[in-house]
Write a structure and sequence with these properties.
The chain is an alpha/beta fold. Helix content is 52%, strand content 18%. The two termini are 28 Å apart.
Length: 148
């Protein structure tokens, strides 16, 4: 299964770092430089996971996260993991609380451990694949019996 990850980051140097991090990973990576671009991409593409910077131009990361969750509910789309990142060291606890408030799955303060980030992403992708395989290999009758 081909997985596509959207990275929403306005700092071009950080985007180069993300390119390096994911260079050998089997994911297609797409980038948005501000919150508005992220929303447009999410409306037109199906991403397995989104990495969002908190402080973005036009629309901040929280606004993007809220939009994604609203769109998923409105269109009946599966819930995609959102990982939020922030370099705001002095307000990290506030950022974590806001991340929970906006239904974000993970929060990483910058700089983050690359291996931990990759492990978290791989965990979400593995879960996504497992759920897809269960649904694909199960009849509707079996799903109703199993989940009600």
């Amino acid at each position: 299964m081909n997985h596509k990850i959207l990275i929403v980051e306005d700092d071009r140097l950080n985007n180069l770092i993300y390119q390096y991090i994911f260079k050998k990973e089997p994911y297609a990576i797409d980038y948005a430089l501000d919150g508005q671009q992220a929303i447009e991409k999410v409306e037109n593409e199906d991403y397995s996971l989104v990495i969002l910077d908190v402080n973005l131009p036009v629309i901040d990361g929280y606004g993007v996260a809220k939009y994604i969750r609203t769109l998923e509910k409105k269109e009946g789309k599966p819930r995609k993991p959102i990982i939020m990142v922030s370099a705001s060291f002095d307000v990290q606890n506030k950022e974590r609380l806001n991340a929970k408030k906006f239904d974000v799955d993970e929060f990483f303060p910058k700089p983050f451990n690359i291996n931990v980030l990759k492990a978290v992403i791989n965990g979400y992708i593995s879960k996504f694949e497992l759920e897809a395989n269960i649904i694909q290999n199960t009849t509707i009758t079996e799903l109703v019996a199993k989940f009600g």
